[in-house]
Specification:
Organism: Vitis vinifera (Grape)
CATH topology of the domain at 4-223 and 257-283: Rossmann fold
Protein name: Epimerase family protein SDR39U1-like, chloroplastic
Structural class: alpha/beta
Largest sheet: 7 strands, parallel
Distance between the termini: 48 Å
Oligomer: single chain
Domain NAD-dependent epimerase/dehydratase: 57-273
CATH superfamily of the domain at 4-223 and 257-283: NAD(P)-binding Rossmann-like Domain
Pfam families: DUF1731, Epimerase
Strand order of the largest sheet: 6-5-4-7-8-10-14
Domain DUF1731: 307-353
Number of strands: 16
């Protein structure tokens, strides 16, 4: 039985924005006898709330950013289709008793769920902060390119009346390559290293989406949060080496707090002004030595003993380049659009994450 089945047609009176129109249909999601309503008739009670309700399909929903995004969407009473390769993993992360309003779909069911959505967020991709063997490097690229291509193909092959109108697709600031001197904005050219190559191919698939679909590509920086991402890798190193600069400490560290990247994605879903490439970084990048000073202070640990390159590479292998190379990236488009960063300064972001203040 297909997970999501269109069973009837209703006309929605309004849409969340001029570029985020609700499909003119009623979608019922079914799985092994469990029926979850993906939309409701606008004439029902609570019409105003339903008029603003999004139905969002999310790849990478079980990841560091995806988990928080799902929580954010549900908090505002939107519905979420979790597009996953492992139903058991998704069910563990999103237990039904705690996460009402989501549908979990494995790949054969993605088409029906995407066509039952107003918008798609594509966050899928193998983590890059790990040891890079040739096999891992291949998977890092293919995990991004393949899933993005699949999502875009489903959208493009959908009829107009069931095609989502917004695609928010992740990329990374690795697109720009590394530099200690250059400043990168959205219009800056791509770099020449491995991560830049990955990002170019990744974005290239997203750019093939139907021209009637509003596309937002967010090049995400180093995401700081309590339960994953860069800090989960850096804190043990600080504990082991008593804290200190990683490598030379002169590298630029373009970061963003988890709450801010989730809010940026949320805004991109609902605000028709958000189109094209947007850098997902805080407005105040810092040198890595400064970042480490603030991290040491927040942890109550000294930050004077440098962690040498070879020690970091012993832990992360070639993946250490994510931290050791660095680039100064500014969120010019987000600022032009008036996006407000809750955590514009790394000191405040780290204090909030580590001390809960």
């Amino acid at each position: 039985m297909e997970l999501c089945r269109t069973t009837a047609a209703f006309s929605w009176a309004h849409s969340i924005s001029p570029s985020l129109h609700f499909p003119q249909r009623f979608s019922m999601c079914e799985s092994k006898g469990l029926r979850v309503c993906c939309a409701v008739n606008a004439s029902a009670s609570g019409q105003s709330q339903k008029e603003n309700q999004m139905i969002v399909s999310v790849t990478g929903a079980t990841g560091f950013i995806g988990r928080r995004l799902v929580q954010r969407l549900l908090a505002d009473n939107h519905r979420v289709h979790v597009l996953t390769r492992s139903r058991s993993k998704a069910q563990f992360i999103f237990p039904a008793k705690d996460f009402r309003g989501i549908v979990i779909a494995e790949e054969p069911e993605w088409k029906d769920c995407i066509q039952g959505s107003n918008a798609v967020v594509n966050l899928a991709g193998m983590p890059i902060s790990t040891r890079w063997s040739p096999e891992i490097k291949k998977e890092i690229k293919e995990s991004r390119v393949r899933i993005t291509s699949k999502v875009v193909d489903i959208i493009n092959n959908s009829q107009d009346e069931v095609r989502p109108t917004v695609l928010v697709s992740a990329s990374a600031i690795g697109y720009y390559g590394a530099s200690e001197t250059l400043v990168f904005k959205e219009q800056s050219p791509s770099g020449n290293d491995y991560l830049a190559e990955v990002c170019r191919e990744w974005e290239g698939k997203a750019f093939k989406v139907n021209k009637d679909v509003r596309l937002v590509l967010i090049r995400i920086g180093v995401v700081l949060g309590k339960d994953g991402g860069a800090l989960a890798k850096m804190i043990p190193l600080f504990n082991l080496f008593a804290g200190g600069p990683l490598g030379s400490g002169k590298q630029w560290f373009s970061w963003i707090h988890l709450d801010d990247i989730v809010e940026l994605i949320y805004e991109a879903l609902s605000n028709p002004s958000y189109t094209g490439v947007i850098n997902g970084t805080a407005p105040n990048p810092v040198r890595l030595a400064e970042m480490c000073d603030h991290l040491g202070n927040a942890m109550g640990r000294p930050s004077w003993l440098p962690v040498p390159d070879f020690a970091l590479k012993a832990v992360l292998g070639e993946g250490a380049s994510v931290v050791l190379d660095g680039q100064k990236v500014l969120p010019a488009r987000a600022q032009q659009l008036g996006f407000t960063f809750k955590y514009p300064y790394v000191k405040d972001a780290l204090r909030a994450i580590l001390l809960g203040s």
